[in-house]
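How it folds
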Amino acid sequence: MSAVLEIQGLQKTYRSRKGVRRALDGFDMVVEAGQVHGFLGPNGSGKTTTLRTLLGLIRPNGGRMAILGREVPAALPEVAGSVGAIVESPQFFANFTAQDTLRLLADAGGVEPARVFEVLELVGLRDRATDRVKTYSLGMKQRLAVASALLKNPKLLILDEPANGLDPGGIREMRTLMRNLAESGMTVVLSSHILAEIQLICDSVTIIAAGRRVAAGAVADVLAQHASSSVRVRLESAADLAASAGALRQLGAQVTVESDHLMVSGLDRPSAITRVLAGNGVFVSELSPVSVDLESVFLELTGTAPVEGEHRQVDQTVMAPAGPAQGGWGH
């Protein structure tokens, strides 16, 4: 695969009376062709700044960016026709219909009028095409925004929170659309607060915190790097939790006592748990491995402070084991 999007050492600083704030501090990102790539970060991490800088809406202070192999922002006029994007909240004329809105955009962009009906069909708005935008729900406006980004049938599609305002059925339809677009050869960069959806839909991810990359790679690889060996143990009687924790610690396990179960790690074989507890007259009602998901990895990584060093990403350094996550997804 070839890289459709490349960012190296991207820097953006803002000056105010309070001093200098580094919105981007040597950020790196690579997106390969034909992927659905998740771009994740808590509020204030530099995610939207990255997208706006990439699209020429903000001037960077340093670093390199390339789209479809061409350096931007210098080559933006040449590659703009191959890029569709939604960044932050899209705005439309309230008294225009969806059909009129897209026809206006198509005419301005030199797109064939027939494409308007194709994209309305793709996003599920064809039956509401002649209704005024002011009658649309938030989710319908979001569908219209996606339709506008698809008008040019771009090679690279950048979507910032495309599921905003959608109900569960709409989210599923958007997921299917993104996968179909990728299978047709389009590359999709997707930013979303719905981490479970990112895990389902994306081939790869980049996670940003405090202007630095903290993780990048295939979704399965990122999850595997943070896989847990912990086991959840529930007992027939909660009164046995404390004594059972002591018995397992004597075996060499690390044990955390929760209100109705034990979290046990440090044992090669889970069968040792049942054997020891049964020997103490305690019986297990549940023994299950704790699986890691993208949300837990995200919360762990975005609670990690960036390291010092020019253009050095957090995930390129050896870090001490992280404590409880202090960051998190802003709602």
